[in-house]
């Protein structure tokens, strides 16, 4: 039987093939190939659309929203950002106008999520238009508005149809009005599966939206303003039916007295994804969900970021929780002011399922000159690598090593166990190599060139043991929310470097046809997603992002 040509395949098979194309520029190239491929590729090209608004380029939105644009009906997620322009006078008003134009001309009932990313008040009129025309939204966000929206929203016919489709609620309260808005969203959502509460209340007592922490947070005798407002429809908590959600994300929420609030309004046993970041009293929270009545039955993803106290209560509670729960696939731990790292036994308990491991801890506040990141000794690291053989992403601190040393024996002895991770795809080091024994700082370009040599050596070493290793990164991004490359994160990809950026020409030293020699090519923060999807560990906002690259300042005369 003769081999089939791509042009002879059915439309369904072509669609399946095109669905594996990740890079948007490649999808654009496919769109220009033929009319049929154009109709197929736009489904994936337009699924997630980010737009910069509030700039002179807003005039091009007319072409984007043209009825002849066959990609519009396939938009599922729309992210709006304020454009970075020098003159910001009147920019917000222009952005509101552009947002209204977008919502007016988009096809109805296509969006699943709409996100307003500027930290500015969103127009209540635009929100009413969004809820009126997009009834299939699965994600709703409680954000700051310029007016009370419910007078207009309650006039929308069959508004309950919108909330019947909602599965995820994101709460971003920074004042009383937003808390009330979030509480109303949660009350109307009957089939919620995911809840995010990220607070950002002002600490300045002179600010107009300042709220005393004693009023804001839970106490031993009564719930605080956050819980009593967001979960107001569930009061009294002693007799409420808890929410059966699968994902919970808490950020900057005081959990010291969570036993009488969160432990009653949420059924923790059904959680599959739990994230707790910068939450005071997290030791109490972990102790509470470690009880048999609250312990998650099948927790797959667990993320915690915490500043511990002098007694290391948070780390002790974390070790106890990890030893009780089972089946974690993704584990992220980021502690500061801690004297110890998590116990190795609490990590290897999940050896059969663990695929992503991110472990970082510092003995002081991140960014302080006297703070050092804690490092596992060679035997502990070896035990982790030997028993957790399914790991695909690894982010960890390493011992001091010299970037100019051709054979750093100390690092080789410590880091050799990672070669046992045959499924490893992304390797991330937060500790920067030094340029010792030289006492003079090198320029950034020189340092990155030396870092590239170091990454190439690691790729060479792992060719046989870790054939899937595609990404090696150093440092931590401090711009994870800005959609920009961070100067504090350097990422290298393995392979034929020009092909990574779309050019087929080979480079001397690149991987040959037999794959016997590796080459490390620097890539951007966003580009690496199209090279290796299993690199989500680089997207996290780790405390180590305050540790800068040890290079000479641009204006240093030396």
Key features of this structure:
single chain; 558 residues; alpha/beta; 13-stranded mixed sheet; three-stranded parallel sheet; 16 strands; 15% strand
Helix and strand arrangement:
Elements: H1 11-18, H2 24-31, H3 35-45, E1 48-53, H4 61-64, E2 77-82, H5 91-105, E3 113-116, H6 124-133, E4 139-142, H7 150-153, H8 160-165, E5 168-171, H9 176-188, E6 194-198, H10 213-216, H11 225-230, E7 247-251, H12 262-265, E8 273-277, H13 282-289, E9 301-307, H14 313-324, E10 330-336, H15 344-348, E11 356-361, H16 378-387, E12 393-396, H17 409-415, E13 426-429, H18 444-465, E14 471-475, E15 489-494, H19 497-500, E16 520-523, H20 528-531
Helix pairs in contact: 1-3, 2-3, 5-6, 13-14
